[in-house]
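Appendix C reproduces, verbatim, an entry submitted by the partner laboratory led by Prof. M.T., so that reviewers can inspect both the input and the predicted structure.
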Amino acid sequence: MDRIMFGDNQFFAVNHLSDEKSRAQAIKFAENKAIIKVLDDMYDIGINTFMCTTHDRIAEVCDHLRSAPQRYKNFEIYPCMPYAHKYANAVTDLGIVGALKNYMPGNMFTTIAKGSLSFATKDFISIMELLIDAEMKMFKGIKTGVIFIQNVVTDLLLGLGMKDIFIAYDKYIREKYKVEPGYITMNLPLLLDVLDKCGIENPIVCSSINKLGFRMPGGIEKYEQTIRERKFQSIAMQVFAAGAIPPEEAIEYICNQKGINSILFGASSRSHIKQTKELIEKYSFST
């Protein structure tokens, strides 16, 4: 994995501290050409990995990438799924059959039959495989080195103790897509404990890590100990604690945590992307 990764929250008006900033971002990125402009800036500055949800608008970004394969030959996307709002909106707009036709891969009737049987028998693993295949349709022909499961699902599975789903997800991603599975969580220590019990070694885990302990249940000391002592591939997100920590202070802290492999951040302008990249390189090199 690359040391520096770029995220997509800003494109879809996700700000955990400010509704005003969310509204401003929604206006700024109302058209897809604004998203593509920022991604071009990211890529030209030297960041090749874009970690994003499976929002419908990402499908149009993928179309753009496929339209210029030479230009984007080093561009890689790490999909994060599922994007639950997409399915809820599709059912509202198109009905259940229309939503299935819109998102399910392959032959519609075969897929619906498989899906219906899976729901009827509560075969959660088959349902999971159907949803993964549906979400991956938009990324056809694009490099996807890691496929993540979103924290809303990861942490629900943790709460329900459904270890068999973690095992099946890990196996399905490796065998069908020939890439590594990744996990996003709001509870890093607990997830690592559970993945250990599942026999999943050296997992890729993305979680909130920052100097303020923002969205880090159990506290900073517990996280620092986990990062220092546990064997896993760590991606730090929300490193600025939604803007509550000054950029240089935030990056210096993250780079001082020796067990962190990669840093994920989002930005809305070329200058902020460049500034953050330079800070990461400065403190990664000096520590």
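Residues 84-103 form the longest helix (20 residues). Additional entries are available on request from the coordinating office.
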